[in-house]
Structure formats: C-alpha cells, structure tokens
Description:
Elements: H1 7-32, H2 35-44, E1 45-50, E2 57-58, E3 64-76, H3 86-93, H4 97-110, E4 116-123, H5 124-131, E5 140-150, H6 156-159, E6 162-164, H7 167-172, E7 181-183, H8 186-190, H9 192-195, E8 200-206, E9 212-215, E10 231-233, H10 237-246, E11 252-258, E12 263-270, H11 283-292, H12 301-304, H13 314-323, E13 338-341, E14 344-347, H14 357-363, H15 366-377, H16 385-397, H17 420-427, H18 451-462, E15 466-467, E16 473-475, E17 491-492, H19 500-512, E18 530-536, E19 544-551, E20 558-564, H20 574-587, H21 593-601
Parallel strand pairs: 2-10
Antiparallel strand pairs: 1-8, 2-3, 3-4, 3-5, 6-7, 8-9, 10-16, 11-12, 11-20, 13-14, 15-17, 18-19, 19-20
Helix pairs in contact: 10-20, 13-15, 14-19
Amino acid sequence: MNPFQNRKYIIAGIFILVVLIYIARLFFLQVVDQSYKMSASNNVLRYVTEYPSRGHIYDRNGELLVYNEIAYDLLVIPNQLEAFDTVKFCEFLGLSKEQVEKRLIKAKKYSRFKASVFEKQISIESFAPFQEWLYTFKGFFVETRTLRKYNYPIAAHLLGYVGEVSEQKTNKDDYYKSGDYIGVSGVENSYEEVLRGKKGVEIFMVDVHNRIKGRYKEGRYDTAAVHGDDIKLTIDAELQKYGEFLMQNKIGSIVALEPSTGEILALVSSPSYNPELLVGRERGDNYKILEADTLKPMFNRPLMARYPPGSTFKLVQALVGQSENIIWPNTRFHCFYGYTVGNFHMGCHYHMDELNLEQSIQHSCNAWYANAFRSFLDHPKYGGIYNSYNIWRDKVTSFGFGKKLDVDLPHEVNGYIPTLNYYDRVYGEGRLRSLNIVSLAIGQGELLITPVQMANMAAAIANRGYYYTPHVIKELPERYNERQLPYLVKRYTDIDSVYFNHVVEGMYLAVHGGPGSTSTGTLIPGLDVCGKTGTAENPHGKDHSIFVAFAPKNNPKIALSVYVENGGYGATWAVPIARLMMEKYFNDSIQYKWIEDRIVNANLLNAKENK
C-alpha cells in the first residue's frame, strides 16, 4: 500500500477550502458589504445639495414679516483652476488680492479635486454682474442658497436670526452637515423644524478629476428640496413697531399680552437692532460690533432681564393676604410718611391716612403693605415664620414667578423668589425674623422678576385668577398642532377668584381716582384702564420706572408691563408709554401728540450716571 496515497486528498481538500474562502469573501464584499460599492460610487458621483427656502413668517393680521431672497455660495475646485483676471475677480466680490490667495491655498490644502466653499452668501445684487463673467473664472461655480429678508426693521429679538450650524449640532442631528444654516435665536430657533423645510439632492457623474460629465441616470434619483412651512405669529406688527418707536434712546422693555389667550401682542426690547444686520456676508462683522456694544442691544430684556418688581408686587401681596384671611377689604393701617419700627424706617409719600385695601393700591402705600406682610408672617396660626413664609412663597410662585413660564422663545430665565435656605445662609439657621425681609412687601429685597412675568401677572389679575402661558405662535401647519397644546391650557393661581375684585377696583382707582392716584397718566377717555405703578430701587444709578396695566376693566383685551431702566418714578416714563401703547392698540391713533413727542424725544441712555 502506497503511504502517500492519502496525501493527494489532503492537498485537494486544502485547495478546495481556499477556493471556498475566496468565494465567500467575494460574496461578502460584493453582496453583503456595501462600503466598497459606496466608495466606488463616491469616486464617480457628485452629490450636490439643493437647499430649501425657509418658511415665511407673518404677524397676527397676515402682514408678511420675514421672507427669503436668493443668495449664492461660490465654490472652487483647485485642480480645474486656470489663469484669470484677479483684479476683476476682486472687484466683483469686494475682496483683496491677499484674501483671494489665502483662500485658494486653503482650498488646495483641503483637496485639489473636491469642491470647497470660497465665498458664502453672495447677494443677488452682487452676483448679477459677477454672473456674466463667471465663465471666465474656470474652476469656480455657485450653489444657490437663500437669505432672510425683512419687511420692517423690527422685532429682532422675537424673530431671531439664522447662522451656520455648529459642529456639536451636526454630531447630534444627521439632518445637518457642516456649512448648513440653522435658526440660532428667537422664532427662527424655536420653530426651526417647521421653518427649515427639507433638503434635496442632485447627483452628477464626474471623472477622476471631479469634472461633471452629466446627470446620473438622467436625474432619476434626484430629489427636489421642499420649501419650509409658513407660520403666523401672535404679534401685531404695527403695535410692535410703535413700541420700538417709543422706546428709542431708552433701556428697558414693553410686553403686551392678550389675557384671554396668552398671545404676545408686542415684545419690545430696547436698545434693539435691525435684523438685516445679521444677514449675509457682513453678518460676522456686524455680530462682533453688536456684541461689543456696552448697551447690549442683543440682550433680550423681556425674557432675560431680572428686576425688582417694585410696588407692582403689592397687587400680589394684597391677593395673598386676603386668601389667608390676614387682611380684608376694610383693613386699615396708619402711615406717617412710612413704616417705622425701632431704628428701621421704610419711607412713603404723602397721602391721606388709614387707607383700606383698594385705597392702598390707589395711593401705593408702603406702610400699609409692610404692616400687612408682617401680620401674615407673624400670625400665630402658622406656628412660626418658617411655615408662613413657605405658604406665602407657594402662593406667589403660582403666578409664574421664580420659574420659567416656558414661553416659546429660547433663553428665557426664571426670575427669583428666595427660599428659606437662602435666608438661613444669610441670617443663620432658624434666625429669620419678619422685619429682616419686610422689603419684600413692596417688591424690593431679593425679589427678581422678568418683564414677561410681570405682564403675565397683569393678565392673571385681569382674568381674576388664571393665565395662559405667554406665547408667540398663532398658527402652525396642522401636523404640528401638538406643539400648540401647552398654550391652550388654563393655569390657575392659588388665589380664589373672589379675592380679585377689590384688587382690580384698586387698580381702577389708581387710574380713575383723581388727585393722589398714582396712575392717572393712563386715563384714556372711554376706556376703563386698570393699572399699578412701581419704582424699583437701583443701587447702580437712578431708580427704574415700572408700570403694569390691563384694559378694559371687564373682558380685558390687553395686559402689559413697561420697564424703563433709570427712569425714576413709574408715573414719569412707564405710565405714559403704557398709555400710548393702549391708545394705539384700541384707537390706532394718539389723541395728545405732545405726550408722544415727549416720550420719543427723551434720551435716557445716560440716566444711569445721574442718580
């Protein structure tokens, strides 16, 4: 028997095994694993993104606020470059020769055969003359984009702006690629998903040098971009425009709401800026200028500024005290130019003595509220100030204070209603006394409230105990209806509706009660305005002028807060501004033009330095 006879079977088996391994590997590479196919396709195909136009933005009356204008991104493929007229090229694009050379070097480092962006967002005006010469600049081509355009230079903080997407966002969301644009702030950010639309793609065949040779499969696999959806906002463009007109050369805000819906009618932040500044090729330079401005024109004061509410907070104190049966409509306290205990003195202006609740609002008596607040905190039924303070704080925060209201705009802050933990850190654990925090009675001390929260307080009082979350969206496409559901929910305060009538009457008397009333400057013939002034102490300069109001008294149509930094007394600037806003809203005209002229011509930008 031949001892080597079986070896031929072993060798044959090895060859068969090797062949089977190769077959299996080829099957995997060609059928199962698509990566090599994709790599090969990418070498012969160029995918060109077709960017959609963003949705238009309208005001509550159908007035077009934001639309689109075509713009162009200029791209370059270094390997296809030929000698060109550099001087003419620079003239068209407004670039220096050095800038062009640096950008070409950068493009070559990226890839000699792949396209990269050379210049972004060229406007249609700049592109029109350049287009006639584009064929002479071999290696350059354009992609169509869109830029935001504005019918009016208003509502910059509310509308927001669009900018290039961050690398962090591209890592989180597959929709975005480097170089894409996204809503950065305002409505553009909040409703980005609605406004952005859907990108399309065109597929071209290219040679080894990335030169286009035609459409792939005659465009069979191309997809068209889908235009973003339009949205309608709650703001009244004319009222917004007028509010910004009144607030020029002043620092502060105006927030106007519709109490029955929570819809924001105007959201004025001053100083502001023209939204056109953050569009196009100059956006980067303009952004730096705005950021460096010491007046902070990009700071959204209605949502981000936190102020002491001043005497406007007395309205909440009156409601909380009544609800706990600590004070009643006929409760009276003495006032001898203020509230004095030992060495402590809280001043007050002159008015008749022994006011009742309605009169305390009408004349804004500090002593009345200091007495009422301490009576609450020290009442024996609570068993100590730590229990009474927590009850007080819970009722106060039910108005939306001390937390975000969840307005449908980004960057809202929560304000501040101090906790007992805070006071324990300040005074020592268990050592808090009512006199330590009596300044809270008149809206001072540690209280911090945003202007939108103050307007929301006015709306809650106008509604006698409930509010809707303030919002700027009025209409969305039907498939996005669930996004509006939170703004259709009534949110009740912890104060029963029966306690609001005397507070409302006090606000009415503050406007209509004659001499000594604090808000008579908002008296508009034929309109039952209810209001409350405030003057917030400011350690950095002149006091802040504040006013909250709603009208009419029954079935109110508007509630608003006005805050003028370094404006002094509430009646000096905030009251007439509120009056003009309401008169504009209800009558669309101004009866006493001298009031408007006084406000518009006032420049309070230096008031901070003149306490």
